[in-house]
Predict the 3D structure of the following.
Amino acid sequence: MDIDRHADAPAVRAPAGDGETPPKARRKKKNWHPVMWSFFIALGLVLFSAAGVLYYVWNGLRPPAPGDAPVRVTVERGMRAQQVAELLERHGLIRDAWLFAAWLKWTGEGSRFQAGIYEFAPGTSREEIVRKLNAGETVAPATFRFTIPEGLTIRQMADRLEKAGAVGKDEFLRAARDLSRFAEFGWVRAIPADAGIIEPLEGYLFPDTYEMRTGSTAEDIIRRMLAELDRKLGSLPEDWLETMEERGLTLHELLTIASLIEREVAVDEERPLVSSVIANRLEKGMPLQIDATIQYVLDEPKERLLEEDLKVDSPYNTYQHKGLPPGPIAAPGLKSIEAALYPAETDYLYYVTKKDGSGEHLFASTLSQHNRNIRTSEENARKLQQQQQQGQ
């Protein structure tokens, strides 16, 4: 019979021990605990960091504490969204300019902001701020108004503006004499560099009623008045430049003639007639003999010029010098500019005021006619004086 050699061999058993897990199992358990702990720690750090970032963003984008006094900010033309955000942060209307600008970019806002002065209450939501900036809901800035009548000189304008509390007289005159400040205006660049000109911008500051922002400088005011002259010239008939060139005039000469008309004429219908007298005299080489040019160079205007006044030594003296004076003597209005451009077709060489209270003139083509008109004018003055005395 076959003998099973292994029948009597003892069964192989795990060695008796004290219940410990096998070495391999123990190694797995040791590795599992650190991995899990690292995972949870990392997850916790991520969650904590995310919570911190979310809190930073939430806190940085929420409105500041409400306040009672409204805040005014000025958004300048051409400002980028980041610059507007920095402006709002400086005035305490938002907490964080960088976050606000990032939020604007994320939401596609900031490209439609309109320039102007805005008023916001502290605590206004960012959505409301953006809405106002997009809609251009600006507040009206504080302004002042002033009127420059036709026929005023630059010095008279300076006096008027100082009395109105707009700008100082000396500040205005200094600015008006510095043409480099206004080089963007082509007409200003074309003003002759004539040492005889008393005020280079005389005649170029258009007379009108203006409304300016409070705090405007003399330069601001002058620039506004120069721009108004440009606008008024643009309203002239389309052929005005061609007409001026055909007559051989520069704009400086045109404004000079217009200023003479402005100071000499009170009745609109007579402006083209006086313009024709000036044109006819210039064509014949006759001195203009306009009293207003004498008044311009006197220290104080006079109601009636004396014979000695007509001898004043000045290139503006149109009794002693033929042709036009070096420049305008006052601010002409649009009707005087039109009259200078389009004089009436007459053969008049003289005119004298009627002195009957109408403000009108008597015109003549010859010296003898002019002398008769002078006698008529003097008789009218006597009658008017008698009427005034009887009325008293």
User: Anything to note?
Assistant: The CA atoms of residues 65 and 171 lie 44 Å apart. The radius of gyration is 44 Å. The longest helix spans residues 23-61. Residues 143-234 form one domain.
